[in-house]
């Protein structure tokens, strides 16, 4: 989204990407994997005949006249919309220690990850804008699957996996940066408050996540910390 759009709509930044929903090859492979897995267990899968039809129909699409007189008519191409969204800082999101122990006898972590109304509205509004632009350009039509009601977002049983928000494998915020030790773990130079020779350089010092991968920012932060340490040692 352009900066002026974000400002006008009062929403967080987002990256959107499209991927092909499925191809004849992928549909054939999916059904074959389901049948094969069930047969190995000595049973037939649910909807066995449906999977056989899927395999036959998509083999025709792949091999055409080799299996049947004519191939099926061209189908509409469908895409899934993937969305990586910035998250607003939320003090209610916490990582704490649970009472469960790991194999080394150490307490396991408990993640309490929460989103805000601002986060939900930004995700939904971004999709509405994208849908309007796609329709205006006459490139296709976009179906918005994300719900409008916040309580649905927060109940995994009421929302499909395709639209349920999930993390993107970049853990941030557990040692967030702040000048005041009441609000952060490290200071502006990545030094842990109260310990003179302990520094942390990584995405854990971010107060929140952005909408893109953090690697380049982490590298820049490490260079910055290296310059700071050099100035103190030399």
List the helices and strands and how they pair.
Blueprint: H1 3-9, E1 14-20, H2 24-40, H3 48-63, E2 79-85, E3 94-101, E4 107-112, H4 117-137, H5 150-153, H6 215-233
Antiparallel strand pairs: 1-2, 3-4
Helix pairs in contact: 2-3
Q: What is this entry, summarized?
A:
With 234 residues, this protein is an alpha+beta fold.
Structure report:
By secondary structure, the chain is of the alpha+beta class. It folds into three domains: 3-16 and 86-158, no CATH class; 22-66, no CATH class; 168-234, no CATH class. It has six helices and four strands. The strands form two sheets. A two-stranded antiparallel sheet has the order 1-2. A two-stranded antiparallel sheet has the order 3-4. Strand 3 and strand 4 form a beta hairpin. The radius of gyration is 25 Å and the shape is extended. Residues 65-74 have low confidence and may be disordered.
For the structure shown, list the relevant keywords.
single chain; 234 residues; alpha+beta; two-stranded antiparallel ribbon; 6 helices; 36% helix
Q: Could you give the order of the helices and strands?
A: HEHHEEEHHH
The biggest beta sheet reads:
2 strands, antiparallel
Rg is 25 Å
**How many DSSP H or I helices?**
6
Pick out the low-confidence regions: 65-74
Number of domains: 3
Structural class: alpha+beta
**Overall average residue pLDDT:** 83
Straight-line N-to-C gap: 45 Å
- Helicity, as a percent range: 25-40%
Categorize the overall geometry: extended
State the assembly state of the protein chains: single chain
Spatial order of the strands in the main sheet? Answer: 1-2
Number of strands: 4
Q: Report strand %.
A: 5-15%
């Amino acid at each position: 989204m352009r900066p002026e759009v974000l400002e006008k709509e009062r929403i967080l930044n987002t990256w959107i990407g499209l991927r092909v929903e499925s191809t004849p090859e992928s549909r054939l492979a999916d059904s074959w994997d389901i049948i094969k897995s069930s047969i190995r267990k000595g049973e037939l899968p649910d909807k066995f005949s449906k999977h056989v039809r899927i395999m036959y129909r998509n083999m025709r699409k792949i091999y055409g006249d080799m299996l049947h007189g004519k191939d099926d008519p061209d189908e509409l191409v469908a895409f899934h919309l993937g969305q990586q969204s910035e998250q607003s800082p939320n003090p209610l999101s916490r990582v704490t220690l649970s009472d469960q122990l790991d194999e080394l006898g150490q307490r396991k972590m408990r993640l309490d990850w929460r989103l805000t109304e601002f986060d939900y509205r930004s995700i939904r509004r971004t999709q509405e804008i994208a849908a309007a632009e796609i329709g205006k350009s006459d490139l296709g039509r976009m179906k918005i699957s994300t719900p409008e009601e916040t309580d649905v977002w927060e109940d995994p049983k009421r929302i499909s996996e395709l639209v349920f928000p999930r993390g993107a494998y970049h853990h941030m915020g557990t040692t967030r940066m702040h000048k005041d030790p009441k609000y952060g773990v490290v200071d502006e130079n990545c030094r842990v408050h109260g310990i003179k020779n302990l520094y942390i350089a990584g995405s854990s010092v971010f107060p929140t996540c952005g909408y893109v991968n953090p690697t380049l920012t982490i590298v820049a932060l490490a260079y910055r910390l290296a310059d700071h340490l050099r100035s103190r040692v030399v």
